[in-house]
Design goal:
Keywords: Glycosidase, Hydrolase, Signal
Low-confidence stretches: 1-20
GO molecular function: hydrolase activity, hydrolyzing O-glycosyl compounds
Distance between the termini: 52 Å
Protein name: Glycosyl hydrolase family 43
Pfam families: Glyco_hydro_43
Structural class: mainly beta
Number of strands: 23
Largest sheet: 8 strands, mixed
Radius of gyration: 19 Å
GO biological process, one term: carbohydrate metabolic process
Helix content: under 10%
Mean pLDDT: 93
Oligomer: single chain
Number of helices: 1
Order of helices and strands: HEEEEEEEEEEEEEEEEEEEEEEE
Length: about 350
């Protein structure tokens, strides 16, 4: 195969999908107290809860959309608003991926990835701000690009850690000086404010294990998780998303540890959540977490393919299922719940 063609195929597959697919119609639930996966079509899900409302986002591709609902099990019928349409040209005009929304310092912020209409491998992280109490209202203004000059390279999948009164930004990117599809790593920097990084950049994890290198080496989609005692974990997606073996790994921050000290993080040697052919779950990954309306349950939200070989594109769909913590405080995600199987709705819905 021509090398230029191979790189192009990888890059297209890596694009996290476009929003031109036929929407998934969730199977009818047998009662009001249950739902079934998948809950809707899409990829790269993220949700943030405030004042009884869940604010949900996923990759759309050519814009940034925001969903609002009181019930995550009814996401497919939630109110949906386009909050940002990119310019026709420029560094922020193409491939808008994996947006995430947060309420920080009294304002709303959205972090998303976008690239140029003229330059390949140009993905970078961008920030939007809104002072309205309701993020589906008001005005979203562009705060610009979020980056650290120490390694201003290909970057995507930004996530926020709030820890001991400080903000930290985690993202997936290419090593300094690398300008081709080779490997993706996960980095962390401290934040001076919600749109500015400060100080050093720390490499947290690189795809060094065999199960992280299917297709090619990828660590991406970092997601912070805290247990009831406040211990910090970082769950991430590993391997190329176009393979059935895309899966979740995890790093644990030692109690009292410094998030910027890589030695204070411990990496699992095996995936913590992976495919299940019997459950019609292939390439499960790019997850996030939320709690039920009562706050008594923890839920895992992720995307997967229903059939083998469907790749990193428009056939991915969104799923959710509860998880627990062990007596020692470690998250226990189990296996993907089979499509079509009834699951009790989150407590309080």
């Amino acid at each position: 195969m021509n090398l230029r063609y191979l790189v192009l195929v990888l890059w297209i597959g890596f694009s996290c999908g476009k929003d031109n697919s036929t929407p998934v119609t969730p199977p009818p639930a047998p009662s009001e107290a249950t739902f079934r996966n998948p809950i809707q079509n899409g990829a790269d899900p993220f949700v943030y809860r405030k004042d009884g409302q869940y604010y949900y986002m996923q990759t759309v591709g050519n814009r940034v959309d925001l969903w609002r609902t009181e019930k995550m099990s009814e996401l497919n019928s939630a109110r949906r608003t386009t909050i940002f349409t990119p310019p026709a040209t420029g560094a922020n005009s193409r491939n808008l991926w994996a947006p995430e929304i947060y309420f920080l310092n009294g304002k709303w912020y959205v972090y998303y990835t976008a690239g140029s209409d003229t330059e390949e491998y140009s993905q970078r992280t961008w920030v939007l701000e809104n002072a309205s109490a309701d993020p589906t209202q008001g005005t979203w203004t562009q705060k610009g690009r979020l980056f650290n000059a120490e390694n201003d390279n290909y970057a995507l999948d930004g996530n926020i850690l709030e820890h001991n009164g400080s903000l930290y930004f985690l993202w997936s990117g290419w090593p300094k000086g690398v300008n081709k599809v080779e490997r993706q790593e996960i980095y962390i920097s401290k934040m001076e404010n919600p749109w500015t990084l400060t100080g050093k950049t720390t490499l947290l994890t690189t795809p060094e294990l065999n199960w992280e290198r299917n297709g090619f080496g990828v660590n991406e989609g970092p997601q912070v998780l805290k247990n009831p005692q406040g211990r910090v974990f970082m769950v991430y997606s590993a391997s190329y998303c176009g393979t059935d073996d895309y899966a979740l790994g995890m790093l644990s921050l030692r109690e009292g540890g410094d998030p910027l000290n890589a030695a204070d993080w411990t990496k699992t040697q095996q995936p913590v959540f992976t495919k299940s052919p019997s459950a019609n779950a292939f390439g499960p990954g790019h997850n996030c977490f939320f709690q039920s309306p009562t706050g008594s349950e923890n839920w895992l939200l992720y995307h997967a393919n229903t059939n083998t070989g469907e790749g990193c594109g428009e056939r991915r769909n969104i799923r959710m299922q509860p998880f627990t913590f062990t007596s020692s405080g470690l998250p226990q995600f189990g296996e993907p719940v089979a499509t079509g199987r009834s699951i009790a709705v989150p407590a309080g819905e």
